[in-house]
Amino acid sequence: MTDEAYSDRQSFIEGKVLLIDKPYKWTSFDVVGRIRSQLRRSLGIKKIKVGHAGTLDPLATGLLIICTGKQTKSIDRYQGLDKTYTGTFFLGMTSASYDLETSPENPRDTDHINRVLLEGIAGKLTGIQLQTPPLFSAKKIGGERAYMHARKGLNTILSPNRIEIKEFDITGIRLPEVDFRVVCSRGTYIRSLARDFGELAGCGAYLSALRRTHIGSYSVEAAISPEDFGGILKSPPSA
């Protein structure tokens, strides 16, 4: 998309699809809020719909599809596309959130771990399956987000979702760290995949790094940062 396209006020109202590279520790709603405020400030759009097509956890980075204006009606279609992730599992410890949102604990031995075992586990976790979401997630339980139950110390069990891991490759081994690439269906929690991977490995694991590289055919290589988006918006003409 050219800089000129970013200065067209009416086109954002009619609807645009923006590819944003979400920064580390930003929530998906942080990005939505930043895009909305930039459109209001730079283009003088007082009211505009802005939404994202698939949440990324704060500790993850990568591709976030943002829809504006009438394109927000297409959000569900984008959410239904397959996702591609790269990241790292840390073996030999677990965490309550299945990532670094909570402190790792329960150290266990990893001397038995080797490439054959790891690739075998990846194979077992490939395909259609039922996956239990993390309690530290935005899933709703009786109208309340699951992470609120977790922070209250409630031992709530979420219902499993039917998901599909379409590709699962081990791309690097630096024990206790294991790098991976996964292509998966809508509704997949990579943190839960880390938990399941660690259980099958017999030593526990948590997700230590995650990046979403693709949503369908959309690539993070074509994405820009929220700051860069604000920088290329052009100010509205003077009255």
Say which CATH homologous superfamily of the largest domain is assigned: Pseudouridine synthase
Question: Cα-atom Rg, whole angstroms?
Answer: 20 Å
Characterize the largest beta sheet: strand count, sense, and whether it forms a barrel.
Answer: 9 strands, mixed
The quaternary structure here is single chain
Q: Separation of termini?
A: 27 Å
In CATH, the architecture of the largest domain is: 2-Layer Sandwich
CATH topology of the largest domain: Pseudouridine synthase
Determine and state the CATH class of the largest domain. Alpha Beta
Judging from the principal axes of the Cα atoms, what is the shape?
A: elongated
Q: What's the tally of helices? A: 8
Mean pLDDT across residues = 89
Low-confidence stretches: 235-239
- Label the structural class: alpha+beta
What does this protein structure show overall?
With 239 residues, the chain is an alpha+beta fold. The protein has 2 domains: 3-80 and 219-232, Pseudouridine synthase, CATH 3.30.2350.10; 83-215, 2-Layer Sandwich (Pseudouridine synthase), CATH 3.30.2350. Helix content is 28%, strand content 29%. The protein is built from 8 helices and 11 strands. Strands 1, 2, 3, 4, 5, 8, 9, 10 and 11 form a 9-stranded mixed sheet that branches. The longest helix is centred in the N-terminal third of the chain and has 16 residues, at 28-43. The chain is elongated and about 60 Å long. Mean pLDDT is 89; it is low at 235-239.
